[in-house]
Amino acid sequence: MAVFSLSDFADHEQVVFCSDEKSGLRAIIAVHNSNLGPALGGCRMWAYASEEDAVRDVLRLSRGMTYKSAMARLKLGGGKAVVIGNPRTDKTRQLLQALARAIDRLNGRYIAAEDSGTCVADMKLMRQITPHIAGIEDKPSDIGMRSGDPSPATAYGVFVGIRAAVKDKLGRDSLAGLRVAVQGIGNVGFDLACQLHAAGASLWVADIHPQQLLRARDELAATVVAADEIYAQDVDVFAPCALGAVLNDKTIPQLKAQVVAGASNNQLAETRHGVDLMNRGILYVPDYVINAGGIIDIYHERIGFDRAALVRHIDGIYDNLMEIFERARQEERPTGEVADVIAEERFRR
Ligand code: NAD
Question: The pTM is what?
Answer without folding.
Answer: 0.94
